[in-house]
Design brief:
The structure is a single chain. The chain contains 7 helices and 8 strands, in the order βαββααβαβαββαβα. The protein has about 230 residues and is of the alpha/beta class. It has a 6-stranded mixed beta sheet, sandwiched between helices. The longest helix is centred in the last third of the chain and has 24 residues, at about 175-200. It starts with a strand and ends in an 11-residue tail after the last helix.
Length: about 230
């Protein structure tokens, strides 16, 4: 039977980060595009929610290339907006993921396939409630995007860093600091995996430094242990 696909794609300021190959926002967009065109090829309906810090836009799922292109054009527009608005949002706007999931929950029909693509930095209890409700009647998959610099500091040296508005430097000579930095990432990733496992939602991890298609194909063939239960 028909299984419509809905994709929620994070294009907030947290995703405007990258140290190798591409920004997290670009990798998220590429993953969404692959899922989108695969759905079109399968003859199913596709749509979703693209969300940034201040706004979000819904494209209702339809079975047409025109609908897919509208979704991807919206995604491209949000991605380009990140180049123009580099300032961090106010504290009132940190729940952009929550707002997107709320809208996704309202339009998702039972037996849908739902993909949530984000770095999940604004994941909170309200987000988890919507994800639990979605997973009761649909197949939900979380796609976690991260950059290698979030996992490991670079080789010993002094590096210049910028958020687009301010410039600073980072000293990575101390081995202990590099080890603690990696340990902190490992703990955060483990916590995220446990959180999604507790609500029975598979988690795919995608690094910005590797080909997105290859990483998604690894998941599809069940080679990633934490995502073998994906439908």
């Amino acid at each position: 039977r028909e299984r419509p696909v809905l994709i929620a794609v994070d294009q907030s300021h947290n995703m405007f980060f990258g140290s190798q190959v591409a920004f997290k926002s670009v990798v998220a967009a590429e993953a969404a595009a692959i899922i989108c065109w695969t759905t079109v090829d399968n003859g199913d309906r596709v749509g979703g929610v693209v969300f940034g810090d201040q706004h979000q836009e819904l494209v209702k799922p339809r079975r047409s290339k025109r609908s897919a292109l509208r979704f991807l054009n919206t995604l491209a527009s949000y991605n380009q907006d990140l180049l123009q608005h580099r300032q961090s949002p106010s504290l009132a706007d940190v729940s952009c993921l929550q707002r997107a999931l709320e809208q996704l929950y309202r339009i998702t029909r039972p037996s849908s396939n739902v993909y949530v693509i984000s770095d999940f930095q604004t994941l909170n209890e309200s987000c988890l409630r919507y994800l639990r409700q979605l997973s009761l009647h649909s197949s939900v998959t979380a796609v976690y995007i991260y950059d290698m610099l979030e996992a490991n500091l670079p080789v010993p040296g002094i590096y210049s860093i910028t958020d687009g508005a301010h410039r600073s430097s980072i000293d990575t000579h101390a081995r202990k600091i590099r080890e603690l930095y990696h340990q902190d990432f490992t703990q955060r990733l483990s916590s995220l995996e446990n959180t999604f496992s507790n609500i029975k939602i598979p988690l795919i991890t995608i690094r910005t430094s590797q080909l997105v298609l290859a990483q998604l194909e690894t998941w599809r063939h069940g080679d990633t242990g934490s995502t073998q239960s994906a439908g």
